[in-house]
TrEMBL record:
InterPro entries: Alkaline_phosphatase_core_sf (IPR017850), OpgB/LTA_synthase_biosynth (IPR050448), Sulfatase_N (IPR000917). It is a multi-pass membrane protein. PANTHER family: LIPOTEICHOIC ACID SYNTHASE, PHOSPHOGLYCEROL TRANSFERASE I. Pfam families: Sulfatase. Keywords: Cell membrane, Membrane, Transmembrane, Transmembrane helix. It comes from the Bacteria. Its main location: membrane. It comes from Halomonas tibetensis. It is found in: Cell membrane. The chain crosses the membrane at residues 12-30, 36-56, 68-85, 114-135, 147-163. Residues 195-479 form the Sulfatase N-terminal domain. Residues 527-565 are annotated as: Disordered. This is Sulfatase-like hydrolase/transferase.
Length: 565
């Protein structure tokens, strides 16, 4: 007899099957909970103990094996997909999944997750094989596994989210948010409009400023904030929790609600990104601004290039445009450029724009250092490594903060930031990282600070807000007069407190609930990509004269009687 046929795995398939199921069960529980990693073998051991006690796979009165396929296989695989997404990102955002599938994911930099994806796939295949063996051998599992299939489907947050989005189809009011949307409009322009430098720091949320939890990792941003105006309480609405969504929220004043089934060519890539609304670039371009975007990752990923090119930007530079300009072409990461290289190119671009002296300029920059799960710290940070190492996200946060401060101070020393508003913001809250348990232990908020022209140093404002409020705040900080201190769904955080934000007025949870039912705002964003939309929008935007709906009486235009909602 060949040795392979006498191996323990073949002689004791019952225990190998139960062990595979137990380990997968333990890992799933640890991933979606706050249990430590050592709980995996404990849960697997408890499962094996139950299997021994109840004789799973070896019943006292066995019945003939049945060559059946369990109903639970597909629900189990779908739950496995959710566990993988949860382990990768911490929060499973269906909007992000839908948007990236349509906007483009081929030029992503997540190569380090490919190994994890392979391991997950192999583990899932082992689990499905083990469970199939158990159902075929033990008739008791055959009788109960249909109920298990139903439980797995009902309890899967991934499917629960899909059904919630489906509520938009049958909701009685799918235009609640759209009625609160204010078309952005500049009513008056300052005598000398300032330049704009907008730095998005990938995943560097203001939560890291808590020194009790994270030490001095945020110290360099605190130092910058001391020279300007810091905003606290900028929360994360649904559909603003990934890079493109955060940039669109802060520049267009609206969450990024994916085109989804509204897109009239489901199997073709998007040609435009939120073409139905005017954003920061559109308004500044109309005022004669020369606008540039620079990011270390590919501009093709997730539609970044399409967004900026379609909203007033003259120059869009990503990995493909910048890597050939590197002195060391091998100094790149999975996504593209490290931030020390990117910031050097950003300084070059600002020098170029300053040298032309052809009206005000605006530069938007997206960093990569803080990207989950471990970040991409630049080699210029190695001398500042301190107590952290390259696998700890806190080291990457420290590096990102220092690089941003260094860039701003270099530009100041060169005199390149005269009459310039500098804005530093996180694009979104971070996804799952090594400090995840500490981050999620309390309330979280995004980084948002402004310094430079007309900004009083040492100012702090705490208001319950969201990323959509950055849009009107930036416009007013630049000296522009806008209608009612509002733009899009946002309210300027520089206005009087009676100009409440949506979060202040309604709360984060109710707003997120409204988001799942909204379809009119979604149609507005994707105007031109939605078939038969013009007639639908005309019907929605032409209420009777006595049906004006406003947030509060002082918001009424006076053009018609208004009801308050």
């Amino acid at each position: 007899m060949l040795p392979v046929f006498s191996s323990p795995m073949l002689r004791y398939p019952r225990w190998w099957a139960l062990l595979a199921i137990g380990l997968c069960l333990g890992y799933a529980v640890v991933t979606v909970s706050r249990l430590p990693a050592w709980a995996v073998p404990a849960i697997a051991g408890a499962w094996l103990g139950a299997g021994w006690l109840l004789r799973w796979g070896a019943p006292l009165r066995p019945r003939p094996r049945a060559r059946v396929w369990p109903w639970s296989l597909l629900p189990m695989a779908l739950l496995g997909l959710y566990i993988y997404l949860n382990d990768s990102f911490g929060i499973v955002d269906l909007g992000a999944i839908f948007f990236h599938l349509q906007a483009g994911i081929s030029d992503h930099g997540g190569g380090d997750r490919l190994v994890a994806a392979v391991l997950y796939t192999l583990s899932m295949l082992a689990l499905l094989a083990a469970f199939t063996w158990l159902v075929r051998v033990d008739h008791r599992w055959r009788y109960g596994e249909r109920l298990l299939a139903l439980i797995l489907l009902v309890s899967n947050p991934l499917l629960y989210g899909m059904t919630q989005r489906g509520a938009a189809i049958v909701t009685e009011d799918g235009a609640w948010l759209d009625r609160r949307y204010i078309e952005p409009e500049i009513l008056a322009v300052p005598e000398s409009p300032p330049n704009l430098l907008l730095l998005y720091l990938e995943s560097i949320e203001r939560t890291y400023a808590d020194r009790e939890r994270f030490g001095d990792v945020y110290a360099d941003l605190d130092a910058l904030g001391a020279k300007g105006h810091v905003f606290e309480g900028v929360r994360q609405l649904d559909n603003t929790g990934w890079t493109m969504a955060g940039m669109i929220a802060s520049q267009c004043g609206t969450p990024l609600m994916p085109a989804g089934l509204l897109h009239d060519r489901q199997f073709e890539p998007l040609e435009h990104v939120v073409p139905g609304v005017d954003c920061l670039g559109d308004l500044l371009s109309e005022q004669g601004y020369r606008l540039s975007y620079l990011g270390g990752a590919s501009a093709a990923f997730a539609g970044k290039g399409l967004f900026y090119q379609g909203h007033g930007f003259d120059s869009v530079m990503g990995r493909e445009e910048l890597v050939p300009r590197l002195e060391d072409p091998d100094y790149v990461n999975n996504w593209g450029l490290f931030d020390d290289s990117l910031y050097d190119f950003t300084a070059e671009e600002i020098r170029r724009l300053e040298a032309k002296d052809d009206g005000p300029w605006g530069v938007v920059n997206l960093s990569i250092t803080g990207h989950a799960p471990n970040g991409y710290p630049a080699r210029t940070c190695l001398e500042r490594q301190g107590e952290f190492d390259g696998e700890d996200i806190l080291y990457s946060v420290t590096c990102s903060a220092w690089l941003a401060r260094d860039l701003v101070e270099r530009l100041e020393q060169e005199g390149l930031l005269e009459n310039t508003l500098v804005v530093i913001a996180s694009d979104h809250l971070t996804m799952r990282v090594s400090a995840w348990d500490q981050l999620t232990a309390g309330e979280r908020d995004n980084t948002f600070m402004m310094l430079g022209s007309g900004i009083e140093s040492g100012t702090r404002t705490r208001r319950e807000a969201s990323m959509v409020d950055l849009f009107p705040t930036l416009l007013e900080a630049m000296g522009f007069t806008i209608k009612g201190h509002r733009a899009g769904l946002g309210a300027s955080l520089l206005a009087e407190p009676n100009q409440q934000t949506l979060v202040e007025r309604h709360g984060l949870v109710p707003l997120n609930a409204r988001m799942r039912e909204e379809n009119a705002l979604q149609q507005r964003l994707w105007e031109g990509l939605v078939p038969n939309q013009s007639q639908e929008r005309e019907e929605q935007e032409s209420p009777p004269a006595d049906a004006q709906v406003v947030e509060s009486p002082h918001d009424a235009t006076g053009e018609a009687p208004a009801s308050v909602q």
